[in-house]
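Progress note, sequence design subtask.
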C-alpha cells in the first residue's frame, strides 16, 4: 500500500476529533468515557504519525495544522458515524438496567414472550442495586433505558433532565409468612399494633414512614427487625419468618397464591393499600427515539395493562 494513503488508527483519530470538538483533553475524555491520559497518548501518537504538532502545548488549543487536519477529517468521521447509526437502526438493540425485585420477580418470567415477539432485537437486561447514572454506566445513551422505583416524594428530583413514562403505581401493603404470623399470635387488631411488630426495612425506614402516614397512623419510631437494603431481600427475610415486609404485586410473584406469604389484615381497622411511588421507564432524549426502546415500551405498557397490576 502506498504509504501516502496509510490511515492512522481510528482510536487516535476519534480521540483527536473529540479533543478538537470539546477544546480540552479532560473534556474529550469525559465525552468518550476514557481516562484523560488515553486522550493525550492518542494525540501524541497521531502527531508522531503525521510528523507535525496538532496541539499547542502553551495555549492548549489546536495548532494551525491541527485545525486544518480536523476540518479535513471531520466529514469522513461523521460519515462513519451516520453509517454506523443506520446499521444499528436496522438491527434494534436495547440494554435495560432495572431494580432487582422488578427484574427478577416480574420482568424476567415474561422476557421469553418479548423475545418471541421481537426475535431480531438485541436485548440485554442488567439488574442493578440503585438508580442508574446514565453518564457513568458505560452503555451507549441511545440504546440504554432504565426501570427504577421512584417514591412520590422524590419524583421531580430523580427524573430531572430525562424522558420518562410511569409504568405502574402499585399498591403497597405488608406481608408476613405463616410462621411469622403464628409467632405474632395471629393478625393484629389495628394498624397501629404493627408499631410493636418486627418490621423489615430496606436501606432505611422511609418506606414504612410513608406507609404509616398513608394509614393516618402517627409513627415516631419504626421498630426494625433488620435493614436489608433491597425490597426483594426483605421479602426473602419475610418468607424465612423474620418479620413483616412491605411489598407490591410486582415483587410477590406467586407468594400469595401459594401461601408462602400472607397479607397483614388487622381485624378492627382496615388497611388502605395506597401507592407510595411509581415504577418508571426512563432514558435520555436520544434514547427515547431508539427504535428498540419503542418496541419495549409499547410491549411493557401493554403487559401491565393486561395484567391490571398498575394500580
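Output:
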Amino acid at each position: 500500500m502506498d504509504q501516502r494513503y496509510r490511515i492512522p488508527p481510528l482510536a487516535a483519530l476519534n480521540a483527536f476529533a473529540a479533543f478538537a470538538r470539546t477544546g480540552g483533553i479532560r473534556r474529550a475524555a469525559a465525552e468518550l468515557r476514557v481516562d484523560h491520559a488515553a486522550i493525550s497518548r492518542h494525540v501524541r501518537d497521531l502527531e508522531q504519525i503525521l510528523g507535525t504538532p496538532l496541539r499547542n502545548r502553551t495555549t492548549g488549543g489546536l495548532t494551525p495544522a491541527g485545525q486544518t487536519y480536523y476540518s479535513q477529517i471531520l466529514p469522513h468521521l461523521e460519515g462513519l458515524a451516520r453509517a454506523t447509526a443506520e446499521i444499528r437502526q436496522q438491527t434494534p438493540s436495547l440494554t435495560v438496567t432495572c431494580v432487582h425485585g422488578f427484574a427478577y420477580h416480574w420482568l424476567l418470567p415474561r422476557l421469553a414472550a418479548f423475545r418471541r415477539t421481537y426475535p431480531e432485537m438485541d436485548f440485554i437486561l442488567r439488574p442493578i442495586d440503585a438508580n442508574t447514572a446514565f453518564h457513568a454506566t458505560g452503555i451507549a445513551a441511545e440504546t440504554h433505558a432504565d426501570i427504577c422505583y421512584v417514591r412520590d416524594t422524590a419524583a421531580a428530583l430523580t427524573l430531572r433532565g430525562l424522558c420518562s413514562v410511569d409504568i405502574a403505581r402499585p399498591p403497597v401493603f405488608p406481608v408476613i409468612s405463616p410462621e411469622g404470623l403464628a409467632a405474632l399470635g395471629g393478625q393484629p387488631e389495628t394498624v397501629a399494633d404493627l408499631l410493636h411488630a418486627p418490621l423489615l426495612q430496606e436501606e432505611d425506614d422511609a418506606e414504612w414512614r410513608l406507609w404509616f402516614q398513608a394509614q393516618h397512623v402517627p409513627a415516631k419510631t419504626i421498630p426494625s427487625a433488620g435493614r436489608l437494603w433491597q425490597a426483594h431481600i426483605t421479602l426473602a427475610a419475610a418468607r424465612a419468618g423474620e418479620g413483616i415486609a412491605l411489598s407490591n404485586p410486582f415483587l410477590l410473584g406467586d407468594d400469595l397464591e401459594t401461601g408462602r406469604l400472607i397479607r397483614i389484615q388487622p381485624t378492627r381497622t382496615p388497611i388502605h393499600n395506597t401507592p407510595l411511588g411509581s415504577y418508571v421507564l426512563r432514558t435520555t432524549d436520544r434514547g427515547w427515539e431508539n427504535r428498540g426502546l419503542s418496541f419495549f415500551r409499547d410491549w411493557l405498557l401493554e403487559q401491565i395493562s393486561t395484567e391490571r397490576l398498575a394500580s
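The beta strands are 93-99, 122-128, 144-151, 163-168, 173-176, 199-201, 224-227, 245-247, 262-263, 277-283. Work on this subtask will continue into the next period as scheduled.
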